[in-house]
Design a protein that fits this description.
Distance between the termini: 57 Å
CATH topology: UDP N-Acetylglucosamine Acyltransferase, domain 1
Number of helices: 1
Order of helices and strands: EEEEEEEEEEEEEEEEEEEEEEEEEEH
CATH class: Mainly Beta
Number of strands: 26
Helix content: under 10%
Oligomer: single chain
Strand order of the largest sheet: 1-4-7-10-13-16-19-22
Shape: globular
Amino acid sequence: MLADCRGGQNLQADDGVSVGYPPDRPVAGPLVLGPSARLRSGTVLYAGSTVGARLNTGHHVVIREESTIGDDVSVWSNSVVDYGCRLGHRVKIHTGCYIAQYSEIDDDAFLAPGVCFANDLYPGSSASAAAMRGPTVGAGAQLGVNVTVLPYVRIGAGAIIGAGSVVVHDVPAGVVAVGSPARPVRDVPHHAAVVERLAAEQDRTVR
C-alpha cells in the first residue's frame, strides 16, 4: 500500500508492504523514500520519516515516524526502528532488534540479532517523556547477539560489545567491552581477527 509517500523511484515491494503509513502522533510531511528500496512482506514505513537510497528490509520490519535514515541501510526481519531515531549510512540491523525512540546509530555500525535499546529513565513517571533518549552508537561499532544498551549510553566509534552484554555506562572508542555490566577488556587492535580465530579452531579440531 502506497499512502503518504514522496519519492520511491524503482521501489521493489512485496505484497503486504505499507509505505507512508499514517501515525497516530501529529507529524509534518509525508514519508520521503529514496530510490531503489527493496521492501519485503510485512514491512511498514510510517509517514514523517526520511529514508535514503537502497533501503533493504526483511519481513515484518517497522520504521516509525520522524526518523532519519541514510543510504544503503539494512533492517532485517522482525526488527523495529521506533520514532525519532537517526541512522547513518550503511548501518546494518539484524533480526529481532528493537531501536528505541531517539536513538542514534552512526555510519557502518552493525547490530547482531536480538540487540535491544532502552530510552526511559523513569518508567511510569509523568516526567518520563521529557527525559526520554536512547543510546548513541558510534561509527563502525559492532554489537553482539542479545546486547542490551540503556538510555543515554554512548558507545564509541569502532567499539565491539560482546554477546549478551548489558551496557549501562559509556564505552570508549576502539575497545572490546563484555559482561553485565559491560566493561572494557582490551583494545580492538589486540583482539584476534576472525580469520585468526577460525584458523586456531580448525587446528584444534584437527588435533
